[in-house]
Design a protein that fits this description.
This protein is of the alpha+beta class and about 200 residues long. The mean pLDDT is about 90.
């Protein structure tokens, strides 16, 4: 059993975020997404059927996508439902193994700040200290689904690698493609990182 299994990890959920059922086995994602979309669109008037259908599909896709990575928790950030998901927020655990027998901030930095062939610009890393432990904050931009001409969708991420102890760590990752919201979403990630708590 992983070392972190005996620990409880908590993080504040933003007001406009929807918790995705990534660890709930047997959940019908279609039915869940329809209910979550309807709840997010509550108002004095009945929701626009087209908007309800679009948000349902987006939440279902978001839940299925995040579930593949198996995070501790995942959130779809939807401050304006008519515009759909603005950002995805995931908190995941990294556990030491035979290759990397100890989790260090340096290891987390190498993991999060390594440039890739898809990097739009080099990752920017800086060390931080959080209530949950020493950490590294990394901003990165990369091109997703690039075609032969090299054009694609620019995605941005703001991530924190947090060393819980030498046997495991946490990665808080916020990702988005609405570049006009970059500063606000980085600030949101900073706020969330300060709320992460680990108890045993």
């Amino acid at each position: 059993m992983p070392e972190f299994a005996a620990s409880t990890v908590r993080m504040k959920v933003p007001e406009d975020a929807i918790s995705l059922p990534v660890r709930a086995a047997g959940v019908d994602l279609r039915a869940w997404a329809e209910g979550a979309a309807a709840a997010r669109l509550v108002g004095p008037d009945a929701p626009d059927p087209k908007l309800l259908t679009a948000l349902t599909a987006e939440l279902r896709e978001a839940a299925a996508d995040s579930r593949e990575r198996g995070p501790v928790t995942a959130l779809s950030y939807v401050p304006e439902p008519r515009l759909g998901e603005l950002a995805r927020i995931e908190l995941s655990a990294l556990v030491a193994d035979e290759t990397y027998p100890a989790v260090t901030v340096e290891l987390l930095q190498r993991y999060l700040a390594a440039p890739t062939a898809d990097s739009y610009r080099p990752p920017e890393a800086e060390l931080r200290t959080l209530p949950a432990g020493p950490a590294v904050r990394v901003r990165h931009a990369y091109v997703r689904d690039a075609g032969r001409d090299g054009l694609g969708t620019v995605m941005e991420t703001c991530a924190y690698g947090i060393r819980a102890d030498e046997t495991w760590g946490l990665v808080l990752l916020t990702s988005w493609q609405a570049l006009a919201h970059t500063d606000a979403l980085c600030e949101l990630t900073d706020e969330l990182a300060r709320t992460v708590r680990v108890t045993t």
